[in-house]
Amino acid sequence: MLGLVPYFAGLSEAELAAAHEAFHAKHMLAGSTLVNAGDPAESLMVIVSGRVKLVHDAPGGSEHLVDVLGPGDSFGALPLLGQAVNESRAEALTGGCLLVTSTAEFASLVTRFPSVAVAALEDVSGRLRAAHARLRAAASAPVETRLAGALLTLSQRFGEEVPEGRTLGAPLSQEDLAALTGSTLETVNRVLAGWRKRGWVKTGRRKLLITDPGALEGVAAAG
To answer: Which residues pair with residue 46 across a beta bridge?
Structure first.
């Protein structure tokens, strides 16, 4: 599993085995808070199984869903990159398993394997670029475009092909989708209702099936 994480992708099997010694397994329960915003940068967590959402609490009590993570993804602040505290809250969307290491142990891995340091920098810079792209889209693209793009991205990362279409692969509520796209629950409900009538999606409690990906691709491209 560590070999799937960008930080460790350049290590040999023997080096991965050595890196693995710095981690321990931890079970997570659906709905549990794994890290709170403002918590000290004390650990790095790698997802072995399950789904995790990263949430930023905005002024006024609203939430912004920063990202959804799955197996091979990692989260946690890294002091070696100037992150003294965690900026987002991490919540388990499903049950699963994590591999956890302390930031001190991770720093020792960086010293031992320079490629890990380079990969960590590339990963963080990539996430910043993605966050900036989402902010630009939220400021200019219509809600339909943002929602279609988010659903397609999630289904490509986590979903699977089924006879009726493609699953989303993450148990997100419509409140989550509103937070992810910088919209409101009422607007997301309205857009999804229209897509259901057209036969583009099917929805249930924390379930969404894309039955016409081509239609959503057209909506996403139109913005």
So the answer is: 74, 99
By the 8 A CB rule, do 131 and 199 touch? no
pTM for this model (two decimals): 0.81
Band of pLDDT at residue 1, cut at 50, 70 and 90: confident
Counted residue by residue, the chain has a size of: 223
Q: Could you give the CA distance from residue 214 to residue 169 in angstroms, rounded to a whole number?
A: 18
Distance CA 11, CA 84 (A): 27
Scan for tokens 């400021």, then name that residue: 139
Strand, helix or coil at 30? coil
- Mean pLDDT score of the chain: 87
Do 210 and 151 meet the contact criterion of CB atoms below 8 Å apart?
yes
Residues 6+ apart with CB under 8 A from 47: 69, 70, 71, 72, 73, 74, 75, 96, 97, 98
SS3 199: coil
CA distance 103 to 83: 11
- Lay out the sheet containing 24-28: strands in order across: 24-28, 96-102, 43-49, 74-75
